[in-house]
Design a protein that fits this description.
The protein is mostly helical and 349 residues long. The protein is 67% helix and 2% strand. The chain contains 14 helices and two strands. It has a two-stranded antiparallel sheet. β1 and β2 form a beta hairpin. The two termini are 39 Å apart. 46% of the residues are buried.
């Protein structure tokens, strides 16, 4: 909206050109997302349902009774701010809508007296992932760039949709499974969105830099970068209240929406393997648990018999790590993985 106003009025009132600056709009969006989340969360927390505790989760009693589903607040803030500030594209607006639906699916589960079944939530995630992948594909063959090589790969629509669906579904559920330690899911996703935002805005969205690094240039890269950075601002506002010991929880309303956007931003980089770089810890912590359960439930194959999943439960139960140790150590590992592999990926290429 602000971008349109700037384009409309800049010819008549010069200062309105500021509203057409992506850098200004990005800074404004991040600031508003953080400030509004910081101010509104504690004031609206009384309207949230109470956490029921997770079955089989270590120290689940510590979360029981706390306000949960805070994602409905901070994702709503993010959505409104982006609709007002973000330079609009048809894809970005559609993704914002789908993300809100992902949040609502988690919110209805958070407030339900009896938790939804895994199959019900999984099918909803599949629907959202298929819809998003189809939208991003736009029924055209897509070229993706590969890590560590200048080679590219042309992907037909059917394969793009299938691969995108798996990627987004995995991102949603890995993020959701990681939301079991105060600040952990929020911190890891903030690290991922910061990395993706920097790549989309400053590299892939910048023609000269992308050409220098032999990477593709995306006209809308800066738009997606602004969205990623804005989400970081939102998460930081939430983490103020989710720091150990937390006073409220994001619930499925937050984790499913964050996971959905994680998958979207990875796809928009044009390199699906980026998921292993920006969210390796999320995948190992939550994703491997999904594999273990799926193999046991559908194929009667038992793996990782001595390891409890999500992995954060294993290190707390078997290694005696505190919540703070889990958060700091997992975050440090992710930061190092991202820094080292992202530089190697681009430079070796």
């Amino acid at each position: 909206m602000l971008f349109w106003i700037g384009e409309l009025l800049e010819k008549h009132f010069g200062p309105f050109r500021l509203l057409t600056s992506y850098l200004f709009l990005g800074g404004l969006s991040v600031s508003l997302c953080w400030l509004l989340t910081f101010i509104l969360l504690p004031r609206l927390a009384k309207l949230l349902p109470r956490d029921r505790g997770r079955a089989h989760a270590v120290q689940s009693s510590a979360a029981q009774g706390k306000p949960t589903g805070a994602g409905v607040i901070f994702i709503s803030i993010f959505t409104i701010v982006e609709l007002i500030v973000l330079p609009p594209t048809s894809q970005s607006l559609a993704v914002i809508l789908l993300n809100y639906l992902a949040m609502l699916s988690g919110w209805f589960d958070d407030k339900a007296i009896n938790s939804w079944s895994e199959y019900k939530k999984g099918l909803i995630d599949v629907f959202l992932a298929v819809a998003a992948s189809t939208l991003l594909c736009d029924a055209q063959t897509t070229t993706i760039w590969l890590p560590f090589t200048k080679a590219t790969l042309s992907v037909p629509p059917w394969l793009f949709i299938a691969g995108g669906t798996i990627l987004i579904w995995t991102a949603i559920n890995s993020t959701n499974c990681t939301d079991g330690v105060d600040g952990l899911s929020g911190t890891l996703t903030a690290v991922a969105f910061t990395s993706l935002g920097g790549l989309l805005y400053f590299v892939l969205g910048h023609k000269e830099i992308s050409n220098y690094l032999l990477l593709p240039h995306y006209q809308d890269g800066a738009v997606w970068g602004i969205m990623a950075f804005s989400l970081v601002g939102t998460i930081l506002g939430y983490l103020w209240y989710n720091a150990n010991p937390s006073s409220l929880l994001m619930g499925d309303a937050g984790s499913r929406a964050l996971g959905f956007l994680l998958g979207i931003f990875v796809i928009k980089t044009g390199n699906p393997f980026m998921i292993f770089i920006v969210s390796a810890v999320l995948l190992v912590n939550g994703g491997t648990g999904l594999v273990k359960v799926a193999l046991l439930r559908f194929f009667k194959i038992a793996i990782f018999r001595t390891i409890r999943f999500p992995l954060h439960d294993h290190v707390r139960h078997n290694k005696g790590w505190s919540n703070t140790q889990v958060l700091v150590r997992f975050a440090l590992v992710q930061v190092m993985v991202t820094m080292i592999t992202l530089v190697l990926l681009i430079k070796i290429r």
